[in-house]
Model the fold of this input.
Amino acid sequence: MSILSISHHLLYSAMITISLSLLSVSVGAQKNIIIESQPSVDKLMNRFISNGKATETIKAWRIQIITTDDRREMEAAMSTFSVMYPDINMDWKHVVPYYQVRIGYFENKNKLMPFLLELKKTFPSATPVYDNVSKRSLVSN
Done:
């Protein structure tokens, strides 16, 4: 090994050591970050947090796979869907005189469209709906 390659090796090692030292200092410094804000900002933030805790539901996109006045038809659709997609959340509600079966939770309409197109092969009346969804149901699924 020549003197030049040894000096390059030592220089490279020194640079690595310095970089790691700086990295550990910056990581250690992140533990002690203190954020100061104006009281008006704190008040708004606390109001935002309180409102979030107070509301039980949020708006989300779902797919309504069937709307029917025949309970047996609704149950058959639910059975078919659960066999095809056992891991996707599904629930139904009765809005007199109709039974509605809704599936999934999507943050926007664009994200549900590919799945909706696939579902329409089996459930031609499937439509996107903007629904009030329980926060608990989102967390549990």
